[in-house]
Amino acid sequence: MDTREQRRFAVVTGASSGIGFELAQVFAEEGFDLLITAEDAEIEAAQRELNRLTASVECVRLDLSREEEVKGLYERIQATGRPVDAIALNAGIGAGGDFARETDLRKELRLIDLNVRSTVQLCKLVVKDMVARDGGRILFTSSIASTMPGAYQAVYNASKSFVQSFALALRNELKDTDVTVTSLMPGPTETEFFERADMLDTPVGEEEKDDPAEVARQGYEALMAGKEKVVGGSFKNKAQTVAGKVVPDSVKAEMHRKMAQPATAGEREER
Predict the structure, then answer these.
(1) Catalytic site residues?
(2) Tens of pLDDT, residues 110-120
């Protein structure tokens, strides 16, 4: 018998760095074989690092903001001939700035394609197989940003609100199966996110952030326990999420503005 068939198999998207890489590392440490993907060349370095921890790590470089490349990833999954025991739908990007006056629409539409459309597309393909065999675990990387209107991060927060709602709805639909759905909700985490989102000159970009390894471990443990969701990182994130249930949306939007407003926007307002 192929010994791989005795080992669990996980797929992690956005696995070249940050929370995605740390999630892949936790899976590897826990004895999973892996298929990992990301759009950048660093995915190959991630594969080499993870191969030190587990016997089988395949990687594929794909841009999941493109529909045909999501299909390509699913074809790669099928080619393994193995059931997906767990999938971490983690790939995503951010975009900061003044939506009406500064940001690039092409980048924001690509954000929607990656954060929203590709998440739905890949989940649709994989979950059907899980339901057919009545087993599997799905982890969505959402965000505490999903709980508040994202002034100066309007499209990103909206994308995470979609992911959060989608994950919870899917979980309810699947409650009569052995397929579980878990949402990981990190706060500001020490990754490349803020640099890529052009948010280094914002208060949230400059503040101390959570350890992605800790966030990933929290997500993995919640996933394996079959929990509905977990707020990752510090106690501050958990308190913020609880408070957000009673604070009016207009107040939350203003709070987010103070965290995410770039210095250049402040200068413009003073003129």
Answers:
(1) 156
(2) 999 999 999 99
